[in-house]
Write a structure and sequence with these properties.
homodimer; DNA-binding
DNA sequence: CGATCGTTTGATCCGCATCAAGATAGGTGG
DNA sequence: CCACCTATCTTGATGCGGATCAAACGATCG
C-alpha cells in the first residue's frame, strides 16, 4: 500500500497530524484504470473526489463541431473535482478520460464536505488550492488570448518540464502531440508547423525528444 | 449607512446570525471611488478584500503590445481578491480600475483569513464562491476558444441582461463598446462589424439600446 | 464652437483552419 | 522476417476571418 503514504503528502492534508490523516484516508478507496477509460462525462452527477496516485487524466469538452478541447491534464499528485463538489450544480461540466494507465484514490463527495467543515486546516488548504488553480487558469486564458502559437508552445514545454521535474537538457515528451495541440487550442497541423520555429527560441524538438537549450522562462 | 445592510446580504455571509454579521462588519470601512481611479495594479501587495456596494470595476491586464484585455467586470454585490488572499503569492496579478463611480467596502486581508478560520460557514461560503467563479471562468475560456465573435457577443449580451436583471425586450447597454470588445478579446472594429450580424439571431443593437427579441439562451 | 473621446466604415494583409495526401512508427499475423 | 494495418504525425495548397492601418463620423463637454 505505498500509494496511501503518497496520498498523505498532497497539499490538501498538509498541516494535519498523522492520526488525522489516517482517519481521513479511511474514507477513500483505490482504483485502477486503463488508458481510454472514462472517469465521468459531462452531465454526470459528481460522486467522488479524486486523487491521482499515478498515471494521467485529461479533462476536456467537445465543441459544437465535435472537436475535443482539452482544458487540463492532471498527473500524479493532482486532485480532481474540488470545484465540482462545492459549486451549487451537482453535475460535471466536462468529460474526464484516462490517457495513461492510472491508479486513482476516490472519496465520496460528502467526505470532502465533512472534512472541510470539521477541519479548518482542510478548508484553508482547499481555499489555497482553489485560488492557486484559479490563478493558473487566469494566466492560461490570457495567454491563450494574447500569445502566438510559437509562444504558447514554448510556454507549454517549459511548464511541462518544470512541473514534471524533467531534465531541460533533454527529455521525452510525456504527451502525444495531438493531445498537446488540443490543450493549446490549435490543430495538429499548426502544431507540427510550429515545432521548427521553436529553434529560434533555443528549443529543439525531434520526434518525441525535447531539449530546452538556454531558453529563458516566459515572463508572466 | 444603507450600504451596510446591503453588504450583509452577500453570499459570503449567508448562514451567519445577525450578531455574527455585525461583528464581522466592524472590520471593514467604506470608501468612494471615481471613474478611472485605480484600486490596485499588478504586482502590488494584496492588502484588502473588497465588496462592491455600487458602481463598476474592471479587472484587466496588458498584453506585450500594450493592449488592454479585460478579464472580468465586477458590479454591485461582487467581491474582489478572494483568490489573491488565499493564494501563496501575496501580490496582485492584474490591474483593477473603477469604470463607474463606486462605493466599495474594504476589509484587511487578515480579517478574511481569520473569518475563514473561525467560521466554518464563511469558509464553506468562500469555497462555494470560488468554485462558482472557477466554473464561470472555465466556460468563458472554452467559449473564447471555440465560438465565433457573433456567438460570443450574443452570449455576452444575454449574460449581461440576466445577471444585471435587465429587461430583455429593451435595455441600455451598461458598458461602453470598447470595454465589451476588450472583455471579449476582440478589436473595437470587429465588435462594430459584428453588431449587425446579431439580427439573424433575434438581437438588435442600435447605439446603446439592446433588445433580445426571442433569442434563445446559448446552450453550455 | 472647437476639442477630445468613442464609434463606425473601408481597404488590405497575414495567420491559422481546412482539405488532401503523403510519411513514419508500432503492432499483428502469416 | 516481411507484408499489412492502423494510429500518429508531417507537409502541401488554398481560403477565409479577424487584425491592422487609415480616415471619417458622432457625441459629449468645457
Amino acid at each position: 500500500m505505498l500509494n496511501i503514504s503518497f496520498v498523505k503528502n498532497i497539499s490538501l492534508f498538509s498541516g494535519l497530524s498523522e492520526t488525522e490523516k489516517d482517519m481521513l484516508l479511511t474514507g477513500g478507496s483505490i482504483y485502477f484504470y486503463n488508458r481510454k477509460d472514462t472517469l465521468f462525462r459531462r452531465g454526470d452527477p459528481v460522486m467522488h473526489f479524486y486523487v491521482i496516485c499515478s498515471g494521467q487524466v485529461k479533462l476536456f469538452h467537445e465543441t459544437a463541431e465535435g472537436v475535443d478541447v482539452t482544458t487540463a491534464i492532471r498527473i500524479a499528485g493532482d486532485t480532481m473535482c474540488t470545484t465540482g463538489i462545492f459549486a451549487l450544480h451537482a453535475s460535471h461540466h466536462m468529460h474526464a478520460e484516462v490517457i495513461k494507465d492510472s491508479t486513482i484514490m476516490e472519496f465520496p463527495v460528502q467526505w470532502l464536505k465533512d472534512a472541510a467543515r470539521e477541519h479548518s486546516t482542510v478548508s484553508l488548504n482547499l481555499l489555497s488550492a482553489l485560488s492557486q488553480r484559479g490563478r493558473r487558469q487566469e494566466m492560461d486564458t490570457q495567454n491563450q488570448a494574447s500569445m502566438t502559437p510559437v509562444q504558447l508552445l514554448a510556454n507549454f514545454l517549459q511548464q511541462t518540464c518544470t512541473t514534471q521535474g524533467l531534465d531541460p537538457q533533454g527529455f521525452t515528451l510525456p504527451f502525444s502531440k495531438t493531445l498537446i495541440a488540443s490543450r493549446l487550442c490549435m490543430t495538429r497541423e499548426t502544431l507540427s508547423r510550429t515545432l521548427p520555429k521553436l529553434k529560434e527560441m533555443g528549443i529543439s524538438v525531434t520526434g518525441t525528444h525535447v531539449s530546452l537549450h538556454g531558453s529563458q522562462v516566459m515572463k508572466h
